[in-house]
Design a protein that fits this description.
Layout lengths: L19 H16 L1 H4 L29 E3 L2 E3 L7 H17 L5 E4 L2 E2 L11 E4 L9 E2 L4 E7 L5 H14 L4 E7 L5 E9 L4 E9 L1 E4 L5 E4 L10
Parallel strand pairs: 4-6, 7-8
Antiparallel strand pairs: 1-2, 3-5, 5-7, 8-9, 9-10, 11-12
Pfam family, one: Uma2
Protein name: Putative restriction endonuclease domain-containing protein
Organism: Actinoplanes siamensis
């Protein structure tokens, strides 16, 4: 009897280790056998470049990826439905209003990713930073971001309210806003501030009509005025 085995059990013999390339080919063959043409129809660029999945830096080397591609927990996330004009106009107007009030040295940027860690690189709708303008930049890091804003759409609601809420807090971003749409089309802003010891967000207000808040700088917004031509 071989040490470490039970009486009557025959120890399993392991064959020689397969080269990595052969293991990957066997894995792809097994996936194809299981899922058939559904897997073979996937474009080559959408296949993870390694068994561990995608890394944050991979987003800089995917020219075929659609705009606004994000990385969440090592998986590519695409915008699956077209954005409504409400969403696009609100982002533009919100950014413009914040830029008009921002002190010198503060930049308000839209739709640039934040590299939270090796497996997470989300793209917020708007962010506020003290970093000097660099036209070659493709991402920020959490320590460079003062405020993140997500304008909720039906497709992004779960990520914005739960997944990103947790991940932005865990990465140490001090302020987070979630902008929702009321039944009449008016924007309502939920504001959060980071509790440092717990690395979680604390709600600081639900703002309708007007928003006045002192961080990351003194901000006063006429929320109804951001979409003056809205209809219910």
């Amino acid at each position: 009897m071989i040490a470490g085995t039970s009486p009557g059990r025959v120890p399993r013999r392991r064959g020689p280790a397969q080269p990595r390339g052969r293991r990957l080919r066997n894995r792809e063959a097994a996936i194809t056998e299981c899922y058939g043409d559904a897997m073979t129809a996937v474009p080559e660029w959408m296949r993870p470049p390694r068994p561990e999945g995608w890394f944050a830096d991979d987003l800089d080397h995917l020219p075929e990826a659609p705009r606004h591609t994000e990385l969440i927990d090592g998986a590519l996330v695409f915008m699956m439905s077209p954005r409504r004009i409400w969403h696009a106009i609100l982002i533009d107007e919100l950014r413009g209003a914040l830029r008009a009030q921002a002190p010198a040295g503060i930049e308000v940027v839209r739709e640039i990713t934040i590299r939270l860690d090796d497996k997470n690189r989300p793209e917020p709708d708007v962010l506020v930073t003290e970093q000097p303008r660099d036209l070659r930049r493709t991402f920020f890091t959490p320590d460079q971001v003062l405020l993140v804003i997500e304008v909720v759409s039906p497709e992004s609601a779960h990520r914005d309210r739960t997944v990103k809420l947790r991940k932005y807090a865990e990465s140490g971003i001090a302020n987070y806003w979630i902008v929702e749409e009321e039944d009449d089309g008016a924007p309502v802003v939920h504001t959060y501030e980071l509790d440092g010891p717990t690395r979680s967000y604390v709600p600081t207000g639900i703002h309708r009509g007007k928003l006045r808040i002192p961080v990351p700088f003194a901000i006063e917004l006429d929320l109804d005025g951001l979409l003056p031509g809205r209809t219910s």
